[in-house]
Amino acid sequence: MEDAVKRTYVLARDDGNILIMSVVIVALLVATGMGYMRWASDEKWDSEYERATIQAYFVAQTGLIERGLTFLRTREPADLPAARVNLLPGTVEGVGIHFNNAVERAPGAEGNLFQRTDSYDVYSTGRVTFYGRKFSGRQAEAIPVDRVATMRARLRSFANYMYLTNREVTEHNEIIWFWTPDTLYGRTHSNDFIGLKYSPTFFGPVSTSQSEFRYYSPQNIYFAYPPVFNAPQVNFPHTAQSIRSAASPFLTDQNGRFGYHFVLKPDGIDIFRYLMGSGGSEVRADSFFMNLNVPNWQAIFVDGEVSIECDPRGFSGQLTIGCSQNMWLIDDVYYSTANPRTGDFDEASTPHLLGLVSEKDIIIEDNIHNGGRGGWEGGTNPAANQNDWNRHSIVITAGLVALGSSFTFQHQNDDWDPYQGPEPDERGWIYLKGAVTQERRGYVHRSCNNGTGYGKAYRYDFRFDRRPPPYYMEALDANGHGLFDIISWGEQRPVRH
Questions:
Q1: Which of 80, 190, 356, 393: disulfide with 165, CB 3.0–4.6 Å?
Q2: In a 10 Å sphere around its CB, with 0-12 CB exposed, 13-18 middle and 19+ buried, how is residue 217 labelled?
Q3: Half-sphere exposure of 199 (CA within 13 A, CB side)
């Protein structure tokens, strides 16, 4: 009997402990469950917030493109804003809105020789709203997330291309090929079919507005970047209006009566004016017209024909020379900081800039200084000629633009040409550091007379990619609107409201 009572007491005591332990365990489970529920809720909130920030970023990018870039690319260069312009907001259906859209000229460009003044900053704020936790039966809280995106775009000029051509064939529909000796270091673009023969080398981007290249016995063609096909065409205007408008002085040939000759010097510019048809270089030397100071961001335009050379000491200043007729290169044209034999110079320390723009052709004159009469391989002692740098080749440090036709050379020994040079008529090299733009690609070397003309040693002046010569030609589309390069993207941290 006593044992039965003792067992009943122990069971009653254990039941009480079990009940207490059960309550404790249930409480712990409830607390843990609530903790997990809150953790899961926080995780969901964080996940929704992270998703909203990503969406807001892409909505802001849409604003940059649909509002800012579209605004820039539908304007002629003269209509681009000098001050901040606010643009309309927009909606990305089902995602969010973009607002505070604006375009303004990039700051800090004024007076800095190596910073383009035609760069623009574009701004857009993207907003996406997500819904947070419910509290006491209330509506879920609407939480907006903003992200501000920025972009800098730069108006493209002809100087942004190392080699830019509208048509790749001659007037007789002959293809001028890029071939093995051709090595180009900057951006190359043609609106036409680019012809590739043997093994040319392209260290810069290559693009064409056509769907393919033309090949002649292709071998080891090297592209540092994948070629771009079906690229937008670059419009070639008939006149150099920006140079005409800015020119000081503006010189006229008085209906073909006068020709002008420029000698570019480190301490200024000598201009000679002579009667057309009155003689050669001797007449030019005796026809002094005016002297100009060292040009400081200046343009000169000749409504007529012009010939150009530089002083043996080179040229100093920032200048673009334009003309309405042919431009003749009489001798070397190089900066005072350049190597007079090769045209090499230190881009970081050279402030000088030169643009040469013709509304017709730019032509290397056939004379002794430029290697005429077989200056490189002609005569009884070719090696002696090659050691005499005044007897062959031409050095050019400039951006060249031939709007009417080509950058080419005089006396190519065609069968129909009354003038015939020696055989061979190799004249040396074109040592060019700058850029070449031409409406129709021109010959600088022919197979006539077992070789006539020049080899190409073309290198891009990479300063042109940041700043072209004064009043240089802009690269426009077929509607006259500016073409822009996106040079940077940026964003600010998400804004939590």
A1: 190
A2: exposed
A3: 2
Alpha carbon separation from 468 to 76, 353, 481 (Å, rounded): 18, 8, 19
CA angle 270, 276, 281 (to 5 degrees): 50
Half-sphere CA count of 395, side-chain side, radius 13 A = 22
330 within 8 A of 369, measured Cβ to Cβ? yes
Q: Tell me how far apart the alpha carbons of residues 496 and 58 are, in angstroms, rounded to a whole number.
A: 17
Q: What is the mean pLDDT of residues 323-347?
A: 96
Q: Which residue has the higher pLDDT, 490 or 88?
A: 88
Give 140's pLDDT tier (boundaries 50, 70, 90): low
For residue 52 the two structure tokens come to: 């909203």
Question: Which amino acid is it at 410?
Answer: Q
Query: Rounded to the nearest 5 degrees, what angle is found at the Cα of 134, between the Cα atoms of 128 and 137?
Result: 140
Q: What pLDDT score does 280 carry?
A: 63
Mean pLDDT of 403-420: 93
Q: What is the pLDDT of residues 423-432, one digit of tens each?
A: 899 999 999 9
482 with 72: CB under 8 angstroms? Answer: yes
Say if residues 205 and 188 touch (Cβ distance below 8 Å). yes
Around 101, how many Cα atoms within 13 Å sit in the side-chain half-sphere? Answer: 24
Tell me what pLDDT residue 109 has: 47
Q: What is the rounded radius of gyration, in angstroms, for the C-alpha atoms of the chain?
A: 35
Query: Which of 31-40, 107-116, 380-389, 390-399 holds the top average pLDDT?
Result: 390-399
Is pLDDT of 380 > 50?
yes
**306 contacts 284 by C-beta, under 8 angstroms:** no
Task: Give the CA-trace dihedral at 61, 63, 68, 71, to 10 degrees.
Answer: 130
Query: What is the C-alpha to C-alpha distance for residues 213 and 175, in angstroms, rounded to an integer?
Result: 12
d(CA 96, CA 291): 63
